[in-house]
């Protein structure tokens, strides 16, 4: 994780790196990244309290979830949080009332290509509406930072950030006419890692982002980036076990694991993320398999359209490793659905910190 952080710092040397805590809210990770100089994107009072409990300065927290209660805004403000994101006028007015004089970023919906795990239109206003809302923020006595966009999780097309930055630049121009200077543009997260398929690296992404900033944003505009997966994804491995192997009536081989959709593998929904597997039998002949979890829910199937090749000799009791599972696994794990426990986490290397 430290290497990932430093690689991103090298690719975007002037950026403020704000870790998306939701990706993997492990105390050891938060402490390590705090020591590296990261800021933190927090989505709830729970994440705020966790960071503060670990000694993180509230000045480096941003309450980035645009869906939040007034009581939660008030609690965050009382705890010292002075940075907030929003995408509606109602949320903006709550921030002005319960977190006066705070810094704000307005999230707009960028015209980026679809990512591997898209958000759809759940978050973000129209770019033109962002101009109106940021003017309104100034009039309400808040400190305008600038526009904020997210290109979708696991975004494989570097052009997505160029498109978003161009749109952010147009918003900055419109705000300048209103005598509002944009101090920073938040380009969100979505930075990908390689799973079964390769992904562009941080160097390539950094070059695209830097070029777009130079072309589209006012000079001296700060860059904020909010990685989650890119920092922790390749640092995790799930150690699982084969529970059963069967041949279905249609002739397809099914491999059932002791981990599934509800206790760690949530990102296999719609087979968006294609994880890689390792077994102790990887030198044996391979054959396609449907991979499923252990619960009694018919949706607890990890892969049945994605081509997964597993050893033909695989059998019940065999260990199986699921690679690059450091992001959005334990944090998505349910609380004992069907009696199966949530994914347990063991941190290796923390003793060297």
TrEMBL record:
Cofactor(s), by name: pyridoxal 5'-phosphate
Q: Which residues form the Orn/DAP/Arg decarboxylase 2 N-terminal domain?
A: 3-232
Cellular component, GO, one term = cytoplasm
Alphabetical UniProt keywords: Lyase, Pyridoxal phosphate
Out of the domains of life, which is the source? Bacteria
The modified positions for N6-(pyridoxal phosphate)lysine read 22
Protein's name according to its UniProt entry: Type III PLP-dependent enzyme
Q: Which organism is it from?
A: Nocardia stercoris
């Amino acid at each position: 994780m430290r290497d990932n952080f430093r690689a991103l710092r090298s690719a975007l040397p002037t950026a403020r790196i704000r870790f998306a805590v939701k990706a993997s809210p492990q105390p050891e990770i938060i402490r390590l990244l705090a020591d590296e100089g990261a800021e933190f994107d927090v989505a709830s009072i729970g994440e705020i309290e966790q960071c503060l409990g670990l000694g993180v300065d509230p000045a480096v927290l941003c309450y980035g979830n645009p869906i939040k209660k007034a009581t939660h805004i008030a609690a965050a403000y009382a705890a010292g949080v002075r940075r907030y994101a929003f995408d509606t006028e109602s949320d903006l007015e709550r921030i002005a009332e319960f977190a006066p004089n705070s810094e704000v970023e307005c999230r707009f919906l960028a015209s980026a290509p679809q990512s591997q795990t898209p958000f759809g239109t759940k978050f973000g206003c129209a770019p033109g509406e962002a101009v109106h809302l940021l003017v309104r923020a100034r009039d309400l006595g808040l400190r305008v930072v600038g526009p904020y966009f997210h290109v979708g999780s696991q975004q494989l097309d570097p052009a997505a950030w160029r498109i978003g930055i161009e749109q952010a630049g147009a918003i900055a121009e419109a705000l300048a006419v209103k005598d509002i200077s944009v101090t920073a543009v938040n380009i969100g997260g979505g930075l990908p890692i390689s799973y079964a398929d390769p992904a562009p690296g941080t160097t390539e992404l950094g070059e695209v982002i830097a070029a777009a900033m130079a072309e589209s944003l006012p000079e001296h505009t700060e860059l904020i980036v909010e990685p989650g997966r890119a920092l922790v994804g390749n640092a995790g491995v799930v150690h699982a076990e084969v529970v059963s192997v069967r041949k279905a009536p249609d002739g397809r081989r099914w491999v059932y694991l002791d981990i599934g959709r509800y206790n760690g593998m949530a990102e296999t929904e719609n087979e968006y993320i294609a994880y890689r597997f390792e077994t102790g039998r990887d030198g044996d002949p391979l054959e396609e398999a449907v991979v499923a979890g252990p619960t009694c829910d018919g949706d607890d199937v990890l892969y049945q359209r994605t081509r997964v090749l597993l050893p033909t000799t695989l059998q019940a009791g065999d260990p199986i490793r699921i690679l690059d599972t450091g992001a959005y696994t334990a944090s998505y794990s349910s609380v004992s659905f069907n009696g199966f426990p949530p994914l347990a986490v063991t941190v290796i290397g923390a003793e060297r910190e």
